Amino acid sequence: MSIQTYPVRRSVCVLSVTAALVVAPLASADAGQSGGPADRGNATSSKKGTHTLFGSTAQQRSGESAAQAMRRTDRKFAGVDVVRAFHTGLPASWSNLRSDYKGRRLVVSFKADPKAITSGRYDRYLTRWFKSAPKNRRTFWSYYHEPEDNIEAGQFTAGQYRRAWKHLDRLEAKAHNRKLKSTLILMAWSLSKGSGRSWKDYYAPSAVNVLGWDAYNYLIRKNGYIAPRKMFRKINRISNRMNRPYGVAEFGSLLAGSDNGDKRAAWLRRSGRYLAKHDATFVTYFDSDVGGDFRLQDRPSKKGWRYVVNKLA
Predict the structure, then answer these.
(1) Strands, E, within the chain: which ranges?
(2) What is the DSSP string of 176-205?
(3) Is residue 41 very low, low, confident or very high in pLDDT (cuts 50, 70, 90)?
(4) Among 10, 34, 200, 212, which has the highest number of CB atoms less than 10 A from its own CB?
(5) Local confidence band at 20 (pLDDT 50, 70, 90 cut-offs)
(6) Whether the Cβ atoms of residue 189 and residue 4 lie closer than 8 Å to each other
(7) Quick one: CA dihedral 96, 305, 252, 190, positive or negative?
């Protein structure tokens, strides 16, 4: 899967349903944040003064248990605030998620055909899933992350996708859990003129708390690292304009040219500082070799993201 000429790696293959991604222990207790169904209009003011949650994925290696992946990620980043978890279908039960992630805060996505969602086929399971979610920490949940290519391929329409979001919003409302944060996750590439897209085609305002984006270093084609301001300013502007908090659900870069990791490490630190300064709600590094080798394996890069996770939160 190739890197695009815009700030995103196009759709990646998702990982396994239950224990594909694991992380290190939480560094601190979760802070409250508004943004539930009754207070979405106050989303921008609610994000001010709250620290950015920094974390990563933790790709489970072949033959590796969730506990082993957890320990490896713990050693690598010395603890993260939040983990990005993927599901290829409906989300795992919260009993499994609690067991796999040991109380971590999650940016968790799941998939199902929009027509199946709106038909009510999964209402019982998803209503129970929302009601079982933690009430003592935020959970950023997303339906069908990066739907743009699927819609362009004719698998479903943008209208069907938005209607599914509204249906899920009604199910979530039954949980009465203000820690649940519905999070639309799109490709940052969809914001570029070259994409030919309008991000609002996928956006159901009444059903979304947080705007999430998958953004990748598009200067890698020139063996460089894009300035954070250029990479994230559109995302920040849209968040302010829509009166919604934002997060970066996938973030990463291949190692450029002859870089031994020093330049990527500096880029990671600059990006972290920019996103913290500009009130990102969460940022999860895509520490994976799906769609390209974005893993932070060299010593400088590992130290760079460890600094972001532990010093900027």
Answers:
(1) 53-56, 82-85, 105-110, 139-143, 180-187, 210-216, 246-252, 282-285
(2) --TTEEEEEEEEGGGGSGGGT--GGGG--G
(3) very low
(4) 212
(5) very low
(6) yes
(7) positive
